[in-house]
Amino acid sequence: MSQQRLNTLGFSLLLAASTAAGNTPVYQTSELQPAGEATAQVARNEKAFSHPSALLADSEQMMFTLGRSLFKKIWVSAPASTKASDGLGPLFNSRSCLRCHTNNGRGHTPDTSQDNYNAVSMLLRLSIPAQNDQDRHALDSGQSGVIPEPTYGTQLQDFSIQGIPAEGRFTLSYDEIPFHFADGETLTLRQPNYSITDLKYGPLHPDTQLSPRIAPQMIGLGLLEAISDEDILAWEDPNDQNGDGISGKANRVWDIDAQATAIGRFGWKAGHPTIKQQNNSAFHEDIGISTSMYPQGYGGCTEQQTLCRQAPDGNSPHLDNVEASDAVVSALQLYIQHLAVPARSSTQAPEVAEGREQFYALGCNACHRPSYITAADAPAGLANQKIWPYTDLLLHDMGEGLADHRAEFNANGNEWRTPPLWGIGLTQATSGQTHFLHDGRARSLTEAILWHGGEAQIARNRFTQLDKPQRDALISFLESL
């Protein structure tokens, strides 16, 4: 076993032991630099998530800039005079990456106060249970994570190019749920309700499963990819053998490039193993742009959507016979790999120090694993970094309140990947709002905590018993990340 691995495991064991004993681990100065030497010393404003890693080589700066322009690119329908930008759709959810990931930050729920609101930066995943032996084999083999809805595919696409009907639109409403803390403070939670209207290609399958998703923030993904599989798997405890009530497990997903099962890391249910595959899938489904990994020029159009499949596409010989060439995919991949994590703020403030103590005392660190050392064989600028993302990248049962009842590879309908917490205090600055959790229902970090159930129920209940100054301190700690 490598010395790096021993060091990482040693710190993990020390962290677990000190927490079990009711002690907060000693503050480490490296916590100031959540991405290690790659941390960006930048203003904590709307552009905080838009800077390159401090370790990005000078020779890669131009490629990073190109990737940024591709992230912002507005795609248009084919045929068009702009041959490097056509091929949009025919069905899509957004015309660019940036429209979903505002300033590389989180997406948001639609403004339901408007009569004809659009769901930009939020979408509905679709699937059905296995219907036959062929479906069951596809799932059991690990090559498919879901069975697509027969007519509408794996997500509802509520925009389309001219002449092609969009699939439909989803409506969103909320039930208000009052909540009372032990000290008497009250607030209101939002329970979302979803339905699909204006379907243009016939009815949905009667067993259709829906899963709402907002776009996640984009920082630090290259560093998460640089964590070794072994380090992630070391924290697995699917049968809760240590009896702490936490039974995290890695998702096992299909790696298209490797043509093999791999550890899932990206997406709300860890459905993709690599940044490259996550990017290509988003090109294909969200924007309708073909790549070598997903070469169909018709994007997400299903066999039942014949007019959609017959529309012109932008697949071109000079672009590797697709719409986003391998060079485009590589530039975008480098950009996303090296989007920097900003340095923390207010780490020495008394309320932040108190909040850090509460974070460990409540047991939040059992899933939101504080730190790693990235693998020595990771790409330059990402290797051998002590990072503080506050995630174990594992799946956890989050209870019925957050369940979507939709499996994805090994993730069941109650399970979600622990989201990283680094940068969470910059959500308002970068995205212009504070919508948290996979569906954006939580309007504050406090609401997000209160929705935790399942394996997180004990920690959530402890939070509700804190007095207001203690709760505020925990939120101050999270906002400093």
Description:
With 481 residues, this protein is of the alpha+beta class. It has one domain (3-480). It has helices at 3-20, 61-72, 97-100, 133-140, 221-225, 229-233, 275-287, 306-310, 326-337, 350-362, 427-431, 445-450, 457-465, 468-480, and strands at 91-92, 122-127, 159-160, 169-180, 186-197, 209-214, 252-255, 260-263, 372-373, 386-387, 395-397, 415-417. The chain has a two-stranded antiparallel sheet. A two-stranded antiparallel sheet has the order 2-6. Strand 4 (169-180) and strand 5 (186-197) form a beta hairpin. Residues 1-21 have low confidence and may be disordered.
Summarize the structure.
By secondary structure, the chain is of the alpha+beta class. 27% of the residues lie in helices and 12% in strands. The chain has one domain.
Tell me the number of strands. Answer: 12
How many domain regions? Answer: 1
Average per-residue pLDDT, rounded, comes to 93
- CA-atom Rg in angstroms: 22 Å
Strand composition percent: 5-15%
How are the strands ordered across the major sheet?
A: 1-3
By secondary-structure content and strand pairing, the structural class works out as alpha+beta
String of helices and strands: HHEHEHEEEEHHEEHHHHEEEEHHHH
What's the overall geometry? Answer: globular
- Total helices: the number is 14
Main sheet specs: 2 strands, antiparallel
End-to-end Cα distance: 32 Å
- What oligomeric state is this? single chain
Contiguous low-pLDDT stretches (5 residues minimum) are 1-21
Helix amount: 25-40%
